Amino acid sequence: MSETANSAMPATLASAPGTASVQDLLGAIRRNIPLLVGGPVVAAVLSFGYTTYFVAPVFTARTTFLPPQSQQSGNSAAMASLGALATLAGGSGAARSSADQYLALMQSNNVSDRIIEHFKLMQGFGTSLKVDARMALAAMARMSYGKKDGLITVEVDHTDPKLAADIANQYVDELRRITTTLAVTEAQQRRSFFEQMLKQSRDRLTGAQQALLASGFNPGALKAEPKAAADAYARLKAEATGAEVRLQGLRGSLTDSAPEVIQQQSTLNALRAQLSRLEQAEGRGGDGPDYISKYREFKYQEALFDMYARQFEVARLDESREGGLIQVVDPATPPERKSKPLRAAIAIKTATASAAALVLLVLIRQVRRSRKQAALGGH
After folding, report:
1. Residue 159 gets which letter from DSSP?
2. Whether this model's pTM surpasses 0.90
3. Choosing a second label site near 300 at 20 to 30 A (CA), which of 14, 235, 245, 263?
């Protein structure tokens, strides 16, 4: 029994001809311990010295701010009073703005080019192409959004701590500038829409007023004319216009067979039928003074102008409630400590990598030596 075990052990530990055994490999490692220990130490010292004297320290400046918050309470009231024009005014019921929009705005070429020109970064980057300067700026600037706290963070790396802080703060200033020119938030979108419609309505109202005066209208003539009927017609026509706009908005997102579209089409047909009856009744009344139709058009444009003016003021109020839009929590200041390079971490990684490389080299040398010895023994 013992003889069988003793004969099996050499067979198990024995290695194939031409290959190094485990004992040979361990022996090679023991013989090269000074190299395996001293080599990583030297590599770590060299890497530490290189990062100390030849690599410029990098500083990271950081600023955090609260992005604009949409005001939904004012929006709900405005959409309720607006009714038919809610679709085109951006009344989708949810804020369209998000932190992703502000991150994209800060990373846009518009903002990047202004920062590059403001700090003359093309000379600092040593490039004559703006596209290369944008890439270099994108590599040194990082933007992130915290879903838990709702804050946007801008970090900028640079060898000059003051310049890093100035660039980080400039990102916030550029974002503040661009949000005042673009309709980003829901309130800004409504304000922009009603501002445009108000200008168009004002021009049409001015034209209707001039046409009314040219027809021979005078305030005294209203006493002999059906002013109440003209006012009612103007209101009815304004409702029909709003219903038509609402129908166009619904058709943009729904099919013609949708119940909402069918119901809105029925409402519009009913309003048009009432308008047609009023127009036919006036036609049967004989040829009246021209200023009656002109006055009716004037009242219609006046009703639209009042509607747009009210919604424009509501949108402006909601926009003002958004405060200064961007509220800076922590402005960037020149950092006192460098963020890169991490000399100790680099030295440890260099020592580990060199130790692994040296062990692998010793093992490869031992395997080659064993193969060479096996080849010589075979001859």
Report:
1. S
2. no
3. 263
